[in-house]
Amino acid sequence: MFDLVTPELVGISSNRLGRVDNWMRTLVASRRLAGISVLVYRRGHCAWFGGAGHLKTDQQQKIAEDTLFRIYSMTKPITSVAAMMLYEQGLFQLDDPIAKFLPEFTDMQVCVGGDEENPKLEPARSLITMRQLLTHTSGLAYDFTSIPPVDALYRKHGINFSRHHGSLAEMTRQAAQMPLLFHPGTKWNYSISTDVLGRVVEVISGQSLDRYFEEHIFAPLGMNDTAFWVAEEKLHRLAEMYTLAGATPPRIKGEPTEVIPDPRGALEVSAASGGRQFTQPPQIFSGGGGLTSTTGDYLRFALMLRNGGNFNGVRLLGRKTVELMHSNHLPGSMADMGEPRFNNTHMGAGLGFGLGFGVVLNPALAQTMGSVGEYFWTGMANTQFWIDPSEDLIVIQMAQMMPSTLVPIRQTLRSLVYQALVD
User: Fold this and answer.
1) I need a labelling partner for 60 at 20 to 30 A (CA). Which of 104, 216, 258, 276 fits?
2) HSE (CB half, 13 Å, CA atoms) of 339?
3) Quick count: other Cβ atoms within 10 Å of Cβ 271?
4) Residue 339 — very low, low, confident or very high, per pLDDT cuts 50/70/90?
5) What confidence score (pLDDT) does residue 343 get?
6) Cα angle at 79 between 73 and 84, to 5 degrees?
7) H/E element holding 139?
8) What CA–CA distance (Å, rounded) separates 196 from 235?
9) What is the pLDDT of residues 43-94, one digit of tens each?
């Protein structure tokens, strides 16, 4: 178990933290979530860990620090760290074209109109760089991006790094055949960029992504439960994935213009729990969303970042590298790059993006509790973490609800945690 201290010793009110516990229990009692956990770490100590609910609704095994979760896009910071470890060895520069390592990205086209059957294309004005992969300014997309016709082309051609067949190399080559959403570096768009980055890590290191992670990150940090799949002897610790039957996630872009009711529905097992994904070794190692982990393991990773690249005497990165990673690498905010509202929560006007993380530039504009310089990321099954250097604070929250917009809890947790800081 976590070595917990009294919250008051690190400037947190126990009474006020009780609001987090009540909130979690309400989410479970109202059957919005099957289970949820929250860890609060401050000033070198675990101040609080709480869990509510169970791994499965039909069982009595409670959520714990060693419960395994599909962390999806919380994989991205790990892949970004892997790449920056190679950067520190002088094996690439941030403005190197990725075509230097993946020649299939040499002659990219940009979609400037048309439809799925007849897209209008023009040659990209520049090559995609390593920095643009790390900052999601590459012009790549996702099949769920909802920006036609590129999203439809991704679906038509099966560009999805969570597929069960093929290889990371093959999927990356197929992705290079798709048109870009925009000319590299001109906009920000969440995308498969980090999956492609994972392939670059393979090419530069000469190792498969799973082996690179294990040898250079997981084993050194003692992240013994983090992997691209859950071994049979650990399956009893894997939380079930749920959705709300019949509920439609709210779709919000730009400024809110109406009151949108919370989606309602009965908890049911999500299709994401089935099949081979996460329970057998995958053929495609998704650096953008393929890992499973525990709260305890992810804390080790977060502490390495909080400590400037070092954890328990093991140094993965230099202090200046970590500082570079959580600096804003956009010319302004996400809003300045064409993303006025990201993830239905933070306003893009208050957020920048570093090398693998979102970065808070202005909490008031982001419409969230927090601090300038906080860096963070989330996963689509309702997981999140953030590191606040000015408050010396780490928060990790885990749940399994797909998609996360069905139960939007991220901003609420920030309010509940920050209101508990009293020193």
Assistant:
1) 276
2) 28
3) 10
4) confident
5) 57
6) 140
7) none
8) 29
9) 999 999 999 999 999 999 999 999 999 999 999 999 999 999 999 999 999 9
Q: In what order do the strands lie in the sheet with 45-53?
A: 45-53, 35-42, 393-399, 383-388, 375-379, 358-360, 351-353
Enter the tokens of residue 194. 């980090």
Q: Give Cα 56 distance to the centre of its chain.
A: 23
Cβ-count burial 273-305 (b if 16+ within 10 Å, e if not): beeebbbeebebbbbbbbbbbbbbbbbbbbbbb
Closest CA to 271 of 229, 235, 243: 243
pLDDT of 1 higher than 70: no
Query: Chain-centre distance of CA 156, in angstroms?
Result: 25
- 299, amino acid identity: L
Reference 70, options 296, 303, 230, 282; nearest CA is 230
Residues 6+ apart with CB under 8 A from 261: none
pLDDT score of 342 more than 70:
no
**pLDDT value of position 271:** 84
Full-prediction pTM beyond 0.85?
Answer: yes
Q: What's residue 146's pLDDT?
A: 82
DSSP structure class, residue 8: G
Between CA 298 and CA 267 the distance in angstroms is 27
Which of 165, 260, 185, 321 minimizes the C-alpha distance to 193? 185
- 3-state class (DSSP) for residue 11: coil
Pick from 316, 402, 358: nearest CA to 190: 358
Instruction: Give the whole-angstrom CA distance, residue 144 versus residue 139.
Output: 15
**What stretches of 5-114 show up as alpha helix (H) in DSSP?**
14-29, 76-87
Comparing CA positions, the residue from 196, 135, 96, 161 lying closest to residue 330 is: 135
Which alpha helices (DSSP H) does 49-167 contain, by range?
A: 76-87, 130-135, 150-156
Residue 291 · residue 71 · CB < 8 Å:
yes
- Residue 101 β-bridge partners: none
